[in-house]
Design goal:
CATH class: Alpha Beta
CATH superfamily: RNA Cap, Translation Initiation Factor Eif4e
Shape: elongated
CATH topology: RNA Cap, Translation Initiation Factor Eif4e
Helix content: 25-40%
Strand content: 15-25%
Structural class: alpha+beta
Number of domains: 1
């Protein structure tokens, strides 16, 4: 792995310099306090995240009218992994504070995904999943995005999922007058996970950022028009769909009134 950049670049040499008041190199008391703080932060161990995370950038987001013409390989080619893995809270803030979300261009996207997951519907770890998408005004998009990312790396989203389900990652896509912010999870058959993700987000957001009900929606990856899984996964999806239909029919039969 490439060497990780240092969080702080200013040294503490001024504290060891001559204290002669006439010396041109002597630090003021305020500067000495600042250096002491930096020294303290340097000696602190980074607070690790529970999972490693990667940042991806999509420079050529698929246009809806062309989605059927593009295969998975072409879409993967448009994804670029940025920087090194995020392994600590300090890593996250270094990345987040140096990523100008307001400069991301129309139809481009940025993703923060767990190591091992890629922001591709047809990826073997995502193919059975889905995502919540929130349409947010561009004026509040960066703040909303930071909060959703913190919920992801802080495991607030993971802890509300059903057993056996996983958060894959989160994404931000730029549209004409809004940001589309998404939360991906691995198993779209788990309704409790779907409901709890939404509830967790709405409870975490301050009132000024809370979206209206018509500005968020849930969708399975397999329901997107451009979804194109490999043949070996199509059989898995068909089997899951049949199982869900059978469960729905059984539930409907159980709740139906008895025949007279």
């Amino acid at each position: 792995m490439a060497a990780r950049p240092s969080l702080f670049t200013r040294g503490l040499s001024s504290l060891s310099q001559s204290t002669d008041a006439n010396s041109p190199n002597v630090s003021s008391p305020a500067e000495q306090r600042d250096d002491a703080k930096r020294n303290l932060f340097k000696t602190m161990r980074p607070l690790p995240t529970q999972h490693y995370w990667n940042v991806y950038f999509d420079r050529q987001a698929k246009d809806a009218k062309d989605s059927k013409k593009e295969d998975e390989a072409n879409y993967q080619a448009s994804l670029e992994q940025l920087g090194t893995q995020i392994e600590s809270v300090q890593d996250f803030w270094r990345y987040n504070n140096n990523t100008p979300v307001d400069q991301i261009k129309m139809r481009e996207s940025i993703y923060l995904f767990k190591s091992g997951f890629r922001p591709i519907w047809e990826d073997r770890r995502n193919v059975l999943g889905g995502s919540w998408t929130f349409r947010v005004p561009k004026s509040s998009g960066p703040d909303f995005w930071t909060r959703i990312q913190l919920m992801a790396i802080g495991e607030k989203l993971q802890e509300v999922l059903e057993e056996g389900d996983q958060i894959c990652g989160v994404g931000l896509s730029v549209r004409f007058n809004s940001h589309l912010i998404s939360i991906w999870h691995r198993d779209a058959s788990k309704q409790k996970s779907i409901d709890n993700i939404l509830q967790a987000v709405l409870e975490d957001l301050p009132p000024e950022l809370t979206p209206k009900p018509d500005n968020y929606f849930y969708k399975k990856h397999s329901d997107h028009p451009g979804f194109n899984p490999p043949p070996e996964l199509k059989a898995v999806l068909d089997s899951q769909k049949r199982a869900q239909e059978a469960a729905a029919a059984k539930s409907a039969a159980a709740s139906a009134p008895p025949a007279e």
